[in-house]
Amino acid sequence: MNCTEIRSRLHAYLDQELDxxxxxxxxxxLAACPGCKALxxxxxALRSGIRKHAEYHAAPAGLADRIRxxxxxxxxxxxxxxxxxxxxxxxxxxxxxxxxxxxxISWTAAVQYAGVSADQMLxxxxxxxxxxAVLTSRLVEVASSDQHTVKPWLSSKLDYSPPVPELSxxxxxxxxxxxxxxxxxxxxxxxxxYRQHVINLFVWPETKSGRVPPQAxxxxxxxxxxxxxxxxxxxxxxxxxxxxxxxFADAYASAR
Amino acid sequence: xxxxRVQSRVFAGLSAPGVEASALDERSKARRFEQxxxxxxxxxxxxxxxxxxxxxxxxxxxxxxxxxAFKSLDGFHGDNGRAWLLAIVRNTYYTWFRRNKAEGQSVPxxxxxxxxxxxxxxxxxxxxxxxxxxxxxxDAQRLVNAALAQLPEEFREVVVLRELEDLSYKEIAAIARIxxxxxxxxxxxxxxxxxxxxxxxxxxx
Lengths: 256, 205
Prior knowledge:
CATH class of the largest domain in chain A: Alpha Beta
Helix content of chain B: over 70%
Strand content of chain A: 15-25%
CATH architecture of the largest domain in chain B: Orthogonal Bundle
Number of helices of chain B: 9
Distance between the termini of chain A: 62 Å
Order of helices and strands of chain B: HHHHHHHHH
Oligomer: heterodimer
Strand content of chain B: under 5%
Radius of gyration of chain B: 22 Å
Mean pLDDT of chain B: 79
Number of domains of chain A: 2
CATH topology of the largest domain in chain B: Rna Polymerase Sigma Factor, Chain: A
Low-confidence stretches of chain B: 1-19, 102-121
């Protein structure tokens, strides 16, 4: 193939859209032709420049809820913190039970179990948030190992300022942060790394100011650790083992 | 809220079987939509935001697109929810904003004759030199975003789908409703324009 033919396929080559023989032919040509090679290098540089610098506009906080409320799907699928198990409870009621009785029972039960169920619900949300972020490679909106970059970015988008300590000394370098939506509010998601693993730490203020020691939970192959301190609640989640996650939580708590 | 849901569940249980079935259908539809929606809302917004180049319009486009998607969910049986939703976003954007635009906004050139890109970049070495210099500049981020925003929308959309969403030519062709060959020629043209914009920005600074 001559240069004109090669160059007409260079973008398909760059985008890995050529079959193997086609790609090999380009490989061979590029090895021998400085002009085409330079052109390909320019395209490669442009691509990495775009991927590195072009802004990925994540959906603004509140848009999802605005759409859900328009659709009327909000209540069924993003249950409010309280009462998420009541539809199930309702199923167990004999068909003859009066709706009024159901309401009374569910109210009583809601008071009794609200704490447990809300936590379980939140744990599911935390796991989903972590899994979604890792799966969609939308892990960080502000990618930086510098706490002085990540913290102001988060503060500017939230009505509170989460602690963002530097933990690389403890083996947990900061990778960045993003916004997530948990517990019916936008929250800060800090992303730390541990070897090849990702640790997501969700942080948001809560009304109770007491200290709640770390509680561990393992679910769907993830380890989750939650604790509260000085009016903030923290949920750490990762696929690292429970002991490593505890080490992380300790390092974070003592550094903040 | 919890109370009313319990009641509606109980009422559903007490009503005729047909009514219960349709309520179940509604719920499973809502659940199915929610999965798609939660997974691809960011992609939908990012695409709309780059098309509209404006936050408020992008939000409106995404909202309208999601309402349309929800309505046509029964007709969607594929496994590529992201491409499906992005196609609806694009369609919504063009029907909303195109009709307000004057004719002749589309870019005047013969796409197919441009398939052999690079051909007319007389000096590839200077192109690579300048793109490297641009990307090393302190405001590289601003320059890249400005160059991308400056692209005519036919080209902007294929670059966003290819580089930011990492979609294949086949997926892009389906979303933009153009043949595969046109995806390639538009990408080639788009990248050539981007190199020119960046080269120009570099000369100016």
